[in-house]
Amino acid sequence: MNLPAEIGEQAINQVIETHPRIGEILDQYEIGCVTCGVGICLVKDVVSIHALGDEIETKIEQEILEYLNN
User: Fold this and answer.
1) Measured CA distances, 39 to 19, 54, 55 (Å)
2) What whole-number distance in Å separates Cα of residue 21 and Cα of residue 27?
3) How many Cα atoms sit within 13 Å of 2 on the Cβ side?
4) What is the pLDDT of residue 19?
5) Distance between CA atoms of residues 58 and 42, nearest Å
6) Which residue segment(s) compose the domain that 9 sits in?
7) Residue 62 has pLDDT above 90, yes or no
8) What pLDDT does residue 67 have?
9) How confident is the model over 22-57, as pLDDT tens digits?
């Protein structure tokens, strides 16, 4: 995903703590980062790790960027 570095380069658990909405967006696509006990994946890698495909990855990226820009 092509996200701003301050988000994309952070561990997902830290981002969700600051931006719970991002966790909600991922949860909509059955990416369980909110309940993950590890949470060290970088945000930019989270979707590709779950291999949902380019189309879904683009949708998630758009939703996260839309949230961040509001």
Assistant:
1) 14, 22, 24
2) 10
3) 3
4) 94
5) 17
6) 5-69
7) yes
8) 94
9) 999 999 998 888 777 777 888 888 888 888 888 999
Q: Vertex 57, ends 30 and 38: CA angle to 5°?
A: 50
CA distance 11 to 69: 20
Q: Give the number of domains in the chain.
A: 1
Q: What is the CATH number of the domain that holds 11?
A: 1.10.3910
Task: Specify the pLDDT at position 24.
Answer: 94
Which residue from 31, 66, 25, 35 is spatially nearest to 45, judged by alpha carbons?
31
Q: What Cα–Cα distance (Å) separates residue 3 from each residue in 37, 57, 60?
A: 24, 12, 11
